[in-house]
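Notes from the 1:1 (GR / supervisor)

We went over the backlog. Supervisor wanted to see one worked example end to end before approving the batch request, so GR pasted a single chain during the call. The sequence is below; no edits were made to it. Supervisor asked that the structure be written out right there so they could see what the output format looks like.
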Amino acid sequence: MPAPVTYDKLTARQLRMYRGSLWLILLSEAMIFVTVFAVRFLMAFAQRSADVNQMLGGLLTLLFVISIFPARSAVREIRQGRNDTAMRSLLTTTLLGAAGLIGVVVDWFTTKLDPATRFGESYFLATGYHALHIFIGVIVLSALTSSARRGRFSAANHWSVEGGVLFWYFVVLMWVLLYLIYFWI
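Structure output shown during the call:
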């Protein structure tokens, strides 16, 4: 087995730059989500459809919220130089994310919502845009899991894990907001 590839530790300036850049990306994505959520109220008014699958939506919300814990554990473990346990935590988060993505797709194929209605159109736009983010998050988490398995991170160099997990937190937060806006309000 080849020796693990190591990377130079980021300087404090580089780390601030990377963190700031990621926060700007997340802020711009949040603005798009706010716009998509606003469309729900502008087009569908205050009426919520009785055809949304409350049970599945609740289970998906629970699944996404649970996925935060192994993600947080991965960052904590990698900061302490424990690649093996970080890798397992990243893998768990990846699998939970993939299950959530499958759940969203199942919802699309089993829903009684009519996509031609104002609420249905808004619902499919929001869940589709969010599913794109889940997909990206699962890909990023998969890549991080693979890199952790190969020993590419250390206590001194783990920005990629931190950044990927921060993106996953964003994905979960947007799902919780989506759930509240489309399933409850």
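Supervisor's comment: The longest helix spans residues 12-44.
Batch request approved.
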